[in-house]
Amino acid sequence: MNYRRLWPLCLLLLGGCSDYQWGWYVLDPSTDQGRVNLQFLLGGFNDTIQISLLSMIFAMSLGLLIALPALSHNKALLWLNRLYVEVIRSIPVLVLLLWVYYGMPTLMDISLNHFWAGVIALTIAESAFMAEVFRGGIQAINRGQHEAAESLGLDYWHKMRLVILPQALRQILPPLGNQFVYILKMSSLVSVIGLSDLTRRANELVVNEYLPLEIYSVLVLEYLLLILLVSQAVRWLEKRIAIPSY
């Protein structure tokens, strides 16, 4: 690999580009203006984290319910499962978000604010992927585990809750972590409907200060920090629940 080609990029990232006068003062915490701007920008963490966590929890619950019919031998249930998964996965998240925010209140005659419109849209979009993750994890469990649970007299729901799902969760934890990272990144789209998340606040600050490179660079670092923390948490949880090998 020719590392000399990376040198211009390193100079740019370090502020060494001679053709551009960096305006980091806009986010300098040692000045009143920079402190206010930085606090405003960091204030978006609350909405971003909340909408991502709620969407993840609801998407996991809905995805599990959608995955169960795919494990049955009923052709009608299998067909409904495939229809839902294929249709939802084919719709862009931004399009689904706009439809939920502008279309659902009209269709169902309800009042829907920015936050819950974002949660609903991300939940629906992510539930199709979660359904596939759960389906794959459950099907990966050895058939003998099913037979052992049935021999103990457990019905279907107790078998799934007490025997199959705990084992499946160990296997699907890495994909679940990947999907949470995906939700975190897709949550930036809720800025288009007015939710004051990280991306929305960055856009508003750019309009006021006219320094997009500096502000969006900090925005990149904010999302990078969130995603690195999630990745480390998933790795820690994997080690925590892993079956020890002797």
TrEMBL record:
Domain of life of the native organism: Bacteria
GO (cellular component) term, any one: ATP-binding cassette (ABC) transporter complex
Gene3D superfamilies: MetI-like
Pfam families: BPD_transp_1 (PF00528)
GO biological process: amino acid transport
Family annotation (CDD domains): TM_PBP2
Family named by the database record: Belongs to the binding-protein-dependent transport system permease family. HisMQ subfamily.
Name the UniProt record assigns to this protein: Glutamate/aspartate import permease protein GltK
